[in-house]
Specification:
Elements lengths: L3 H12 L4 H9 L3 H21 L10
Length: 62
Amino acid sequence: MISSGKTATLVREKEKRFSARLLELRAKIQDEEYIDNAIQRIAQVISKKLMEDPDDDTLFRD
């Protein structure tokens, strides 16, 4: 079993390889309110696009 102190050290060493921006985004996705707001913004953008040109089927192409 690995002690919690050693685990924390290993995690910090791994995090040093990631950019500050990536670490910031990782923290944000743990925030439920941030995720809810992001989903709402995505829904608004899609709704606006559909209202602008409802015949444009390129929005949902595979």
